[in-house]
Amino acid sequence: MRRGDLTDEQWEKLKPLLPSQKAKTGKPGHDHRQIINGILWILRTGAPWRDLPDCYGVHSTVSSRFYRWQKAGIWDEVWQKLQTIADFEGKIDWEVHMADSTVVRAHQHAAGAKGGKQNQALGRSKGGFSTKIHIRAEGLGKPMAFSLTSGERHDTIGFDDLLKGGKVKKIARGRPKHRFKYFLGDKGYSSQAIRQKLRKKRITPIIPRKSNEKRRERFNKGLYRERNRVERLINRLKQFRRIATRYEKYAHNYLAMLAIASILLWL
Question: What is the sign of the dihedral through the CA atoms of 80, 81, 84 and 86?
Fold first, then answer.
């Protein structure tokens, strides 16, 4: 086992959530564990697919599995199943959720997608060609939902997608769990529209006011300090070089990389 590969404990937890190894027709598929370890190597190093070490198999086989599962929605499905298991075990904090964003520099290889950069969450900011990741985390610092915009867009642009996402299905019957009690956000989320949307859903906003806002009210500074958990989550995600720099042309492929990184954090 190489550094960064799935441990036996992680594999035992992940294995039941994956598609069947045996195909309905034709040859059995390549070993899931070996393929996923190859994808994790790419995620961790940020290297091109062609530089994948031989121990993980042929690079075209590994990359095609990544793209095929992305198209089928399998990465998101596995991530959601892990959230369901964690919720059943009481490992999700539904009291406090928090949001933040980070700008990621896009490599020149990320350019050239069909439909133009505007449709692929790419734009130009002071840092250059970039994309912005909007993240919602639960109170223990695990990722619940992501949204992508171009790097120059304001934090409030991705808020609605974050609020709608992160629904956790129950093992038993019933509606997915979604409601939390407090929302922690920095001054970038301080707008009357966001506060009204939160209160309409019976969520208490813990957001400091901007200096140019006339309305002032006291807010829970002690609880607001817990927002450092989402900042630490961003730091953990950027340990994966494929996340810290965007190489994917298409936004859905970059979101798949974020989903795989999130799977590791939930294992």
Answer: negative
